Amino acid sequence: MKFPKLLVIFATLSLLAGAAVAGEVKKGDKDKDGHLDKMEAKAFPMLSEHFELIDTDKDGTIDQAEIDAHKIMMGDKDKDGTVDKSEIKHKGVAKAFDKLDTDKDGTLDANEVAAFFKK
Ligand SMILES: [Ca+2]
Ligand SMILES: [Ca+2]
Ligand SMILES: [Ca+2]
Ligand SMILES: [Ca+2]
To answer: How far does the centroid of ligand 4 lie from the alpha carbon of residue 101, in Å?
Structure first.
């Protein structure tokens, strides 16, 4: 009964990959410079609408790390601009919480979350 177990693992992995690597940049990066500028982001209404918010390092473009961080920040239920442990559903981020919370205030802001996704 090895095969069904493998299938379950595979399904879980592909689910995780789908959640982590949605790939908006890959899809919309027309000039292939690795990030989306405002024009490219227009293909994604959600990104276009929140462009300034997503661009946490304010370089005028959004990369996949900033987009992924923004998805985490959408869990900010009490709208205080940061996410605390109860607001984070992403297992990897939750696990790395203490490491990511560089100013040790017990919550993560967009920059701290983005650090998780940036390589
Ligand atoms: Ca681009
Ligand atoms: Ca940016
Ligand atoms: Ca919050
Ligand atoms: Ca913090």
So the answer is: 4
